[in-house]
Amino acid sequence: MSAPPLFNRLALIGVGLIGSSIARAARTQGAVRSIVATARSAATRRRIAELGLADQVVETNAAAVEGADLAIVCIPVGACGAVAREIGPHLKPGAIVSDVGSVKGSVLREMAPHLPAGVHFVPAHPVAGTEHSGPDAGFAELFVGRWCILTPPPQADKDAVDRLAAFWRLLGANVETMSAEHHDLVLGITSHLPHLIAYTIVGTADELSQVTRSEVLQFSAGGFRDFTRIAASDPTMWRDVFLHNKDAVLEMLGRFNEDLSMLTRAIRRGDGDALFDQFTRTRAIRRGIVEIGQDSPAPDFGRPHPDLPHEPLPRPYAVDDK
Ligand code: NAP
């Protein structure tokens, strides 16, 4: 017999990539008895209903959280404060409020003041995603084997934190708890800075005058191609991330610029040892990520490749088999 649902009524505010993946995974895993969802636009609300992602689709954020024992806000971080102000008076005592924002300090600062006493606020960040957006982009397996970081404030109710952790584990995630400030520093280097670099390099390539845009597309080698995937991420989401994690990103960007200057100098001076040492160190990091199961060991991330033609390859030096 399967375990009873962890929550009765899950309210999802915002049903894009992350919200719709939560809905799909929560359904598949029987994590909640019912799901009520809303989104900002009528078009998205209609799509949520068409896809059958929720038991009920409502028009306002306030209506969504009525009677919910878990409400998860899945919208860009810059909009979280205003939504907390809207839902605050409608939350039921004892409800858990969470979010999925990629920045945690600003979410804590901007949402917490609007949530009434007796409601438990446990911010969260599932470190899982793709470059796609919207309710069609989600899938139930998105969180499997990925980390979900909870950043409860120091006075948070332990039972509420444990219940939210159990929810994320049921969706397949590994759960870690840390302070919001530490989260923002860690994600500043592992996620936010790489996105900024991708946005920069793809923009730089686009502006080159001696290399045509069609050449950039045609000859996009592995390195550039991977940057273009990251640089295709949602502009609103990422604008908000950089505006709301300003201090940590600037700190990491300062360090990055120093290291880039060091490599620039090594290239200018022809210092092959410095380049070799740096590349050896970074290769070990990639191998470490694969070893702990956070990425595929297959070449090119295990992407499928077109089959080679089936004709036997020429064997000019082979001895005659017969
Ligand atoms: P998404 O696919 O673009 O969906 C965003 C949702 O938020 C949509 O339902 C949208 O409604 C709603 N929304 C947008 N602006 C809003 C506003 N001003 N007020 C109220 N609702 C608004 O985004 P997502 O990728 O799911 O990202 C959602 C959150 O998850 C972000 O905070 C992001 O930082 C975080 N996150 C993202 C990833 C990732 O890889 N994408 C990974 C981890 C965490 P409409 O469709 O009606 O506009």
Summarize this entry quickly:
With 322 residues, the chain is of the alpha/beta class. It contains twelve helices and nine strands.
Rg, rounded, reads 23 Å
Number of helices: 12
Helix content: 40-55%
The count of β-strands is: 9
- Terminal-residue CA separation: 63 Å
- Global shape: globular
Q: How many strands, which pairing sense, and closed or not: the largest β-sheet?
A: 6 strands, parallel
Low-pLDDT ranges: none
Could you give the order of strands across the largest sheet? 3-2-1-4-5-6
| Distinct small-molecule ligands in the complex | NADP nicotinamide-adenine-dinucleotide phosphate
Order of helices and strands: EHEHEHEHEHEEEHEHHHHHH
Round the mean pLDDT to the nearest integer and report it. Answer: 93
Structural class: alpha/beta
Work out the strand percent. Answer: 5-15%
What do these coordinates show?
The protein is of the alpha/beta class and 322 residues long. The strands form two sheets. The protein has a six-stranded parallel beta sheet. The chain has a three-stranded mixed beta sheet with strand order 7-8-9, covered by helices on one side. Strand 2, helix 2 and strand 3 form a beta-alpha-beta unit. Helix 4 packs parallel to helix 5, helix 7 crosses helix 9 and helix 7 crosses helix 11. It is globular. The mean pLDDT is 93. The protein binds NADP nicotinamide-adenine-dinucleotide phosphate.
Please outline the helices and strands.
Elements: E1 7-13, H1 17-29, E2 32-38, H2 42-51, E3 56-57, H3 61-65, E4 70-73, H4 80-87, E5 96-99, H5 105-111, E6 120-121, E7 124-127, E8 147-150, H6 158-170, E9 174-177, H7 180-207, H8 213-218, H9 222-230, H10 235-244, H11 246-269, H12 272-291
Parallel strand pairs: 1-2, 1-4, 2-3, 4-5, 5-6, 8-9
Antiparallel strand pairs: 7-8
Bound molecules: NADP nicotinamide-adenine-dinucleotide phosphate.
